[in-house]
Amino acid sequence: MSNLLQIHEPGMTPAPHEQEAGAAVGIDLGTTNSVVAIALDGAAEVLTDAAGHTLLPSVVAYGEDGGVEVGHAARAALASRPDQVISSVKRLMGRGADEVKRLAGTLPHALAPASAGGMLRLQVGARAISPVEVSAEILTALRQRAEAALQGRAVSRAVITVPAYFDDAARTATKDAARLAGLEVLRLVNEPTAAALAYGLDHGAEGLYAVYDLGGGTFDVSLLTMEKGVFQVLATGGDAALGGDDIDHAVAERFLAERALQGESAVSSGAAKQALLAARAAKEYLSDHETGDWTLEIDGRASRHSLSRAQLEELARPLVGRSLAICRAVIDEAGLTPEAIRGVVLVGGSTRMPLVRAGVAALFGRPPLSDINPDEVVAVGAARQAEALTVGSDTLLLDVTPLSLGLETMGGIVEKVIPRNTPIPVALAQEFTTYQDGQTAMAIHVLQGEREMVDQCRSLARFELRGIPPMTAGAARIRVGFCVDADGLLTVSAQETTTGTLQQVAVKPSYGLSEEEMAAILQASMLHAREDMETRLHAEAVVEARRAALAVRAALAADGDLLSPSERRTIDQALAGLDEACATGGREAVSDAAQALDAASQSFAERRMDRGIRQALAGQAVERLSGALGLAE
Amino acid sequence: MSQERPAPITVTEAAARQIAALLERRGKPSAGIRIGVRSKGCSGLSYSLEYADELSGLDEVVQQHGVTVLIDPKAGMFIFGTEMDYVEDKLQGGFVFRNPNEKGRCGCGESFHV
């Protein structure tokens, strides 16, 4: 079958089977809202639904008829049939039934009865649904949204963000939800790390960064260290009950109090809801304006309210102050000072408030990064990571091996074990064997670079595996594993599999290598591509030929008596010809000579085989033989 | 093993016509198209075929039937002697590489090895 190829824009050629593999997106799976984004050529785009919404409310409504609604429709159903709607399920991810029982009264859902230690389920109508299944509905909605936005192209892989404090159970639950939704998780990325990636801080100066995340209902602050493009979460803090909603409440209370003064004192739940909507609108408006007026109309009776930014900030100040106090505490506990932090990233819609920005700027002594929509910044970072992990990217050095890592094999050839641009962490192993009969040690020479021969690559480490039991050449199994952890540290281990003898060494491949040097290494590999490949093929041919010669010589020593003098002479001549070709000839000459030796020794090999079988069978009773061979009587 | 090298690949007239038409349609100044080989795929290697915005200086340049085809230096040794053609069947049109170096392909035809 011949495949028809199309011409693509530079860098856009799809990898084989990429169409089937589907697009890779970044997903911010939030407590209140979720966002999906895709990065193409480094430019991230947040994907919207048909109505143009970027945020998908993380709310799932289960209908009596078995139908499921996700997002705005489900949130609307919250008012009319709250017992069939599930929100904030993220708080339950990975929690056991026992753990959550304590929270039972405070949750907006009823828990299904579960045996002790069993899986947590939520009671929705007649059904018991696990948090993983609820999350899977949200992820499915996001996947479908992405597929619609990408004109029907399949979406099958995703980078999904999780809070830095998520434990293994919560992370596993998130992965399970993705699998149910038909998404392969390329990686789970911490939310603050994703926000930092969105701003490209991985290209910036190494050091400490802070992420200030004030969402609707929760506040999180994270301190990250960035070294060689890799982020690690150093410390986190937060308040699960502090967010922009609290500011809305404060404003709504003020509006209702004013309304009472205007003689409209009736406070129904409808009135509170109206007031909250007006309060949120006022808060958002005052981020860009100094003052405004709002009308509250409840049960046909209107009241007028005016609010200035100064008044709003008066209401919000205690709440923002609490978040800043948490920041200070986290920095303190980490034994740091705010001045040590190189940059601050804002996440969450509530960080649009000028009061928040000013407060963060004052605390850290520098204006925070806020160019990217704070509701979308986490998804943007996840999308960039997804692109880096799938397409690979020349600009993002983050989390990939910049140069190939390999081993020296016979003939000075470099066998690449981990190719360049492989996402890390990664662990790959290859089996090697001995070259000579009775070989008991093996030298492991670890190399870095793109060239084919050892002397053109960078030597990283060298060690010897000893204690290989003596066997015929090729019988020993030596498993060499290359493992690069998330920090780029390479561990090479060599293990002889029958005895378990193990040796290993750890090195930092990027140590002492500048970006210019890497570029030069790549450039050289391209310039010398043709001759390198020729050299490699030649070296391989020589190794192969010498191994064949070695085997024939060993056979001659053992069973030389099978040959007539003239036969012996032919083989000797072929051997001499091969030695000559290996020493001086080109690749063709070597492989021709190897073929000649093969032809010359063919009948010798057959006779040896016959003798071997005869020896094995000699003295065996026929009955035992037929039994051993499984022959029918 | 050095020998006098003819043009590393040949481009059929049909392929050249299609390349010229695609470059025209691209509506953007192009140096030509670039053929590369990437070590991705189920059978070792796969071809990449892209528009080239500019010459890289390291490319091998083939000019035939009025079109410029650039060959990535890393690809040269794998595709030496290849004929590039354009074919249309009932459902789709596309380029094919008839590569004498190929020793096998994967079942889907998307990758090959030498």
Descriptive keywords:
heterodimer; A: 633 residues; alpha+beta; Nucleotidyltransferase, domain 5; Actin, Chain A, domain 4; Substrate Binding Domain Of DNAk, Chain A, domain 1; 4 domains; 4-stranded mixed beta sheet; 25% strand; elongated; B: 114 residues; alpha/beta; Hypothetical Protein Aq_1857, Chain: A; 3-stranded mixed beta sheet; 2 helices
Under the CATH scheme, which architecture of the largest domain in chain A would be assigned?
2-Layer Sandwich
Mean pLDDT of chain A: 82
Q: Enter the CATH topology name of chain B.
A: Hypothetical Protein Aq_1857, Chain: A
- Tell me the fraction of residues in β-strands of chain A, as a range: 25-35%
Description:
- The complex is a heterodimer of chains A (633) and B (114).
- By secondary structure, chain A is α+β, with helices and mostly antiparallel strands.
- Chain A folds into 4 domains: 18-199, ATPase, nucleotide binding domain (Nucleotidyltransferase, domain 5, 2-Layer Sandwich); 244-331, ATPase, substrate binding domain, subdomain 4 (Actin, Chain A, domain 4, Alpha-Beta Complex); 405-527, Substrate Binding Domain Of DNAk, Chain A, domain 1; 532-617, Substrate Binding Domain Of Dnak, Chain:A, Domain 2.
- In chain A, strands 1, 2, 3, 4, 11 and 12 form a 6-stranded mixed beta sheet that branches. In chain A, strands 15-14-13-18 form a 4-stranded mixed beta sheet, with helices on both faces. Chain A has a 4-stranded antiparallel beta sheet with strand order 20-19-22-23.
- In chain A, helix 13 packs parallel to helix 15 (587-617).
- Chain A is elongated and about 125 Å long.
- In chain A, 38% of the residues are buried.
- The model of chain A is unreliable at 393-398 (pLDDT under 50).
- Chain B is globular and about 35 Å long.
- By secondary structure, chain B is of the alpha/beta class.
- The model of chain B has no long low-confidence stretch (mean pLDDT 78).
- Chain B is built from 2 helices and 9 strands.
- At the A-B interface, helix 12 and helix 13 of A face strand 2, strand 3 and strand 7 of B.
